[in-house]
Amino acid sequence: MARRHSTASSQAESSLTASGVTVAFGGFKALTDVTMSITPGSVHGLIGPNGAGKTTMVNTLTGFQAPTTGSVALGGKEVGRMSPHQLRREGVARTFQAGRLFTGLDVLDNLAVTGVGLGHSRSGSEAEALRVLGWMGVPHLAERPAAGLPYTDERRVGIARALMFAPDFLLLDEPAAGMSEAEAGDLAALIARVATELGTGVLLIEHNVGLVLSVSQHVYVLDAGQVIEEGDVDVILKSQVVRDAYFGADQEAA
Ligand SMILES: Nc1ncnc2c1ncn2[C@@H]1O[C@H](COP(=O)(O)OP(=O)(O)O)[C@@H](O)[C@H]1O
Ligand SMILES: [Mg+2]
Fold it and tell me: Which positions fall inside the ABC transporter domain (predicted)?
């Protein structure tokens, strides 16, 4: 898990970028002309009401959903038609809203299977799994069965699995769902470390807007499939369109 060193100019070249992406399901557009970029070493927040298109965006950036129009580029190379497996090998990892662990395996094997799937040896994958769990501060989870893990540990293992062999980009779809404020705070600290210590570019989707604003350098706001605002935390906090999207125009008058 080596830290990457990159200059400002190489950062732009090595970004994961959606440009003018529209995703249509039949006649319904889940995303319309969305442009969004994730750069190494920082956390990007993605917020928006339920049904705004956040998960569809993650699916599109990770090969689970091909854009209907528009492009997805990784380091300047078009990847919009790549499979999830290809993109994972190219360094784009994600977690899911639901855990999706192999419940018949222990935690170490859950991580090692991912390493083997990425083309690494069994022993190399186990060593990497132990390294990742140690880095996360949960080495004691290695031999625990994945089935029946406490909820927050299950989420941690999902992140550990995504961190196998140091992906360049990590996309987290509601990782704090169901956590207490204290647990969400621990998770926020971990997410910050992923960016600063590993140099990974993170896209964080969260219902918990406070958590997103506490840890993100740049935030995108989606509403009804469109980016209605983006910028640093100050921009988002001051944005009237964001308030309207979240609280409705009526409430402003109250
Ligand atoms: N495979 C699909 N087929 C049809 N509609 C979909 C599909 N996936 C998502 N949608 C619709 O697209 C919209 C955005 O969904 P989603 O990306 O899951 O939103 P979010 O994650 O922001 O809650 C929703 O209206 C959802 O019902
Ligand atoms: Mg979602």
Answer: 16-249
Q: Cα 155 to the chain's mean position, in Å?
A: 13
Q: What are phi and psi of 192, to 5 degrees?
A: -60, -40
Alpha-carbon distance 75 to 10, whole Å? 9
* Residue matched to tokens 């971990």: 190
Phi, psi of 92 (to 5 degrees): -115, 110
CA of 50 from ligand 2 middle (Å) equals 7
Res 236 pLDDT > 80: yes
Give 25 Cα–ligand 1 centroid separation in angstroms: 9
For residue 49, the ligand closest to its alpha carbon is 1
Any idea which of 3-17, 176-190, 197-211 has the lowest mean pLDDT? Answer: 3-17
Strands 218-223 and 43-47: parallel
CATH superfamily for 8-253 is: P-loop containing nucleotide triphosphate hydrolases (3.40.50.300)
Q: Calculate the alpha carbon distances from 120 to 82, 123, 161 in Å.
A: 21, 8, 14
Strand residues in the chain grouped as ranges (E): 16-25, 28-38, 43-47, 69-74, 77-78, 92-94, 169-173, 201-205, 218-223, 226-231
Sort 252 into a burial class: Cβ within 10 Å, 0-12 / 13-18 / 19+.
Answer: exposed
